[in-house]
Automatic annotation (TrEMBL):
<feature type="domain" description="CUB">
    <location>
        <begin position="362"/>
        <end position="481"/>
    </location>
</feature>
<dbReference type="InterPro" id="IPR035914">
    <property type="entry name" value="Sperma_CUB_dom_sf"/>
</dbReference>
<dbReference type="InterPro" id="IPR000859">
    <property type="entry name" value="CUB_dom"/>
</dbReference>
<dbReference type="Pfam" id="PF00431">
    <property type="entry name" value="CUB"/>
</dbReference>
<dbReference type="InterPro" id="IPR043159">
    <property type="entry name" value="Lectin_gal-bd_sf"/>
</dbReference>
<feature type="domain" description="CUB">
    <location>
        <begin position="103"/>
        <end position="216"/>
    </location>
</feature>
<protein>
    <recommendedName>
        <fullName>CUB domain-containing protein</fullName>
    </recommendedName>
</protein>
<keyword id="KW-1015">Disulfide bond</keyword>
<feature type="disulfide bond">
    <location>
        <begin position="161"/>
        <end position="178"/>
    </location>
</feature>
């Protein structure tokens, strides 16, 4: 299907013909080089936007809502548009012989040029599999496979989908999926593709799996790797496997039962590299970089000289896996050039260290639960592994010996059913002297989550929504080490004790200024201000206007000599979700920055300032004649045809229940775009106020 572009903020509807389903292959925010452009042009700065895609039903349409977003990858510019690429994938075949049961016994290799694989009983009679199912697709020498996971709905419990999953295996890598998923695989260049399917968890919600494939011509420039394809073992092999760079002796880190040193490798076009960890160890990829060189030739990785792009891995390893670079990765942020190499850093981390966490609920008195880390340990949340979430609000005090720091790795953090919204359920790490920290709720791969500043830290485990079907809690590996002399995290210790000072913040009552000679009311220009650490700022809109925060972020100065305030190139972190003040329909706001925030995304440095973007937006008419019209959304069904206006619920701000759905349409203008602000909303049990 042709790519789709839309300006932001706006919505976009993807469409497919009847009998097919939408599978989004990529989604990116883009910053247009030409002002006013709302479509992708080579050379635009882009950033991943797959988080806004929620196309998971068998519908011929899917609506995507693109909000205005500041992009750190693009020097904190706001995205101009969203670029979506998708495929329309058949849900059934005209020829029943081209529909295959992935668990069919005594089955032969699939040799047709297209077809659909389904799990037993898909979709309405979901069945468990007594053992691992295998089907192989045979690929001629001059062909490659295009493969789409057009529907998957199975359990997502456990680390790396051990008990319920779909594996796609070629002679280079393994793709693992479970839970609720739709996915477009990259071109698979292998003589045989193995599809593995297994389900051991029953639920009336589950459907199983549906997968569509096509055999297509292979480009003459593609060099496919050779070698046999081996299914992923159903259970962990009992033999001991030593790393590829160790021949006979067991690595010292295995003897000590700790994580390996950080290792790295680089592969050029057509090359591959196998990562192999010992038994009961897994691969934790720390860095995955594609590099474009000035000569377009493969050179030794140098981030200071090459144009590089850091990405999440496209697949996740367990004990071992093979990386291969086919040489066709286009890097849009590097003038759409093809990367000359791929550079990866990783560690082997242990899976089965001793448990250091109590399998109990939170203390009734709200006290902190102490956890001592003597070199290493494994944390599990209460009832982890039972597939039952329990409402909790616990604070664990992690502590190791003085002079050490701790590294905290994710073995499995599944708290919000694959959603990145950590509002209800989360794991937070909070350094001493801070009130908020780094939050995590979905980290189902093996990776380093957090490194502490000192030998102690608070870890909060919060579950307020226990109705999750595909979440199991948290399992972490924690390891201590002596604090390096050049460790940049946290504040330097003072040479002499300095008594703490509490900044004095005056309490100011804002008074809205009256309007003067204003015959019409429109949203005023956005204004940007900075609040330095320990500083304050007052904002006042005219009478009849609402103060609305459009954006807010904490910033670390790129150059220490810079004045306090945002400069392009500063490291910043979104602050809007954490600011709870000035959230009602008022004309004024008083803000301060009294407690310095440490930003994990900025090398654990402390933020120098808080940057606020605000706007004064009309709320109610002031004066005679009224300079703006107010429309009751339930008064009539008549459309609103005006250049601006205020829409309210009946009797606002006094709450009144409605018995029917109220609707009013807004009539657009050919030379205008529509912009909507929510001045205030408080319905049901939630209080929400934001810019839409």
């Amino acid at each position: 299907m042709p790519p789709q572009d839309t300006c932001v903020p706006s919505s976009l509807t993807l469409r497919c013909p009847a009998g097919s389903v939408i599978v989004v292959t990529s989604a990116e925010y883009g910053v247009a080089q030409v002002d006013g452009s709302c479509s992708y042009t080579p050379g635009d700065c882009i950033a991943d936007a797959m988080s806004i895609v929620v196309c998971v039903s068998d519908s011929v349409t899917c609506s995507i809502y693109a909000t205005k977003k500041k992009l750190p990858e693009c020097n904190d510019q706001f995205g101009s548009y969203v670029h979506i690429e998708y495929d329309c994938v058949p849900m059934s075949m005209n020829d029943p012989a081209q529909e295959y049961n992935v668990c069919q016994q005594n089955s032969t290799d699939i040799t047709s040029d297209r077809g659909i694989l389904k799990s037993p009983g898909y979709p309405s009679q979901f069945q468990l599999t007594p053992s691992e199912c295998f089907r192989a697709i045979h690929v001629p020498d001059n062909k490659v496979v295009r493969l789409w996971l057009s529907d998957l709905y199975v359990s997502s419990a456990g680390v790396n989908c051990p008990n319920d999953h779909v594996y796609v295996v070629d002679n280079v890598q393994t793709f693992r999926h479970c839970g609720l998923k739709r996915y477009a695989y990259p071109y698979l260049c292998s003589s045989t593709i193995i599809i593995q399917y297994k389900t051991t968890t029953q639920s009336s919600f589950y459907r199983g799996m549906r997968m569509y494939f096509e055999i297509v011509d292979r480009s003459p420039n593609d060099n496919c790797p050779t070698g046999s394809v081996t299914p992923v073992p159903a259970t962990t092999p009992s033999t001991t496997t030593i790393e590829t760079d160790v021949t006979t002796a067991i690595p010292i880190y295995v003897v000590l039962g700790i994580a390996s040193p950080i290792r790295s490798f680089q592969i050029c076009k057509g090359q591959s590299h196998t990562l192999q960890c010992p038994t009961n160890y897994v691969v934790a990829v720390r860095t995955n970089i594609y590099g474009v060189t000035p000569t377009d030739q493969c050179e030794e990785h140098d981030a200071s000289k090459h144009c590089v792009l850091a990405t999440d891995p496209t697949f996740y390893c367990r004990q071992s896996c093979t990386y291969m670079y086919t040489g066709n990765r286009v890097i849009p942020s590097c003038s759409n050039k093809i990367a000359a190499y791929q550079y990866v850093e990783y560690q082997c981390i242990p899976l089965k260290t001793e448990l250091v966490s109590p399998n109990t609920t939170c203390p009734a008195d709200g006290s902190k639960v102490p956890i001592q880390i003597d070199r290493r340990g494994r944390f599990q949340s209460y009832r982890y592994g039972s597939f039952v979430m329990v409402k909790m609000n616990c604070t664990y005090r992690l502590k190791t010996k003085p002079g050490d720091i701790m590294h905290i790795y994710s073995l499995d953090v599944s708290l919000s059913d694959y959603s990145s919204d950590c509002t209800d359920n989360k794991l937070s790490f909070i350094e001493d002297g801070e009130t908020q920290g780094s939050d995590f709720c979905e980290e189902r791969s093996f990776r380093l989550l957090y490194s502490t500043c000192s030998n102690e830290i608070d870890m909060r485990y919060i579950v307020t929504d226990d109705s999750m079907y595909f979440s199991d809690g948290a399992e972490l590996y924690i390891e201590s080490q002596a604090r390096p002399s050049d460790w940049s995290c946290g504040k330097p210790l003072p040479t002499t004790p300095i008594p703490p000072t509490q900044p004095t913040i005056p309490i100011v009552t804002q008074t809205a200024v009256p309007l003067t000679n204003e015959t019409s009311m429109f949203a005023r220009d956005e204004i940007e201000t900075d609040i330095c650490f320990k500083g304050t700022s007052s904002y006042t809109c005219p009478l009849g206007y609402t103060f609305i925060m459009i954006d807010a972020f904490y910033g670390v100065k790129k150059q220490s000599s810079n004045k306090c305030g945002f400069v392009q190139g500063d490291c910043v972190h979104d602050a809007l979700p954490s600011l709870t003040i000035c959230r009602n329909d008022a004309a004024g706001c008083f803000m301060s920055y009294p407690t310095q925030r440490r930003l994990a995304q900025c090398s654990d440095n402390y933020a120098d300032y808080l940057h606020i973007t605000h706007q004064c937006v009309p709320s109610r008419p002031v004066g005679t004649p009224p300079p703006i019209t107010v429309y009751d959304i339930c008064d009539t069904n008549a459309p609103i045809a005006n250049i601006n206006g205020v829409v309210t619920s009946p009797n606002f701000p006094t709450y009144k229940q409605t018995n029917t759905e109220c609707k009013r349409s807004l009539v657009g203008m050919t030379d205008r775009v529509l912009k909507i602000w929510i001045n205030e909303m408080a319905v049901s049990s939630d209080g929400v106020r934001s810019l839409a």
